[in-house]
Amino acid sequence: MLARTPAVLHAMLTGLCDGWITRPYGPDTFSPFDVVGHLIHGEHTDWIPRARIILEHGESRPFEPFDRYAMYEASKGKTINELLNTFDELRLDNVAELRSLRLTADKLTLKGTHPALGTVTLSQLLATWVAHDLNHIHQIAKCMAWQYKEAIGPWRPFVSFVDR
Q1: Do 119 and 29 form a contact (C-beta atoms < 8 A)?
Q2: 142 with 161: CB under 8 angstroms?
Q3: 111-114 and 118-121: which strand pairing?
Q4: Which of 2, 59, 108, 148 has its CA 20 to 30 A from that of 26?
Q5: CB under 8 Å to 66, separation ≥6 — which residues?
Q6: Are the beta carbons of 87 and 9 closer than 8 angstroms?
């Protein structure tokens, strides 16, 4: 699943005008551009780094807190294609590293310390990585559909996710 996310994002976002890419679906929400930047930040600082901490230190070294909004500064001045290409490269490297870890059932039960959630297992971290991707793919689709909320007229009750 993790290896498929870059292709899904390319299919959804490549070649679209800024109106599709930069509009959020309401106050305090991410635009598709923001989501891709957020995913890039996660590739740098979240999933594989935290897996390494669990494998090397267990619960004795807590994870660094994750800045959910770091992408705003990091993505400034970039295009969606630059972000998509960066995400592709990072995800390819991280999936290769994940495979190289040769995780066993025993390793998946190893525990780490999340700064807000407390004790978590490596298995839970990896499951969350997949769910996180799927959640943000859904968020991008919702954001894009939201732009049609007025145009769909009487069908609006049947396209429930256009209403926040």
Answers
A1: no
A2: yes
A3: antiparallel
A4: 2
A5: 41, 42, 45, 46
A6: yes
- Give residue 160's pLDDT: 77
Look-up: residue for tokens 């689709």?
141
Residues 65-122 pLDDT 10s: 999 999 999 999 999 999 999 999 999 999 999 999 999 999 999 999 999 999 999 9
Distances (CA, A) of 125 to 8, 140, 142, 156: 22, 22, 25, 37
**Rg of the chain over CA atoms, in angstroms?**
18
Q: Domains of the chain by range and CATH?
A: 2-162 (1.20.120.450)
Complete DSSP assignment for 72-120: HHHTTT--HHHHHHHHHHHHHHHHHHHHHT---HHHHT-EEEETTTEEE
Q: What digits encode the pLDDT tens for the residues 11-46?
A: 999 999 998 999 998 888 999 999 999 999 999 999
What does the alpha-carbon distance between residue 37 and residue 75 come to, in Å, rounded to a whole number? Answer: 6
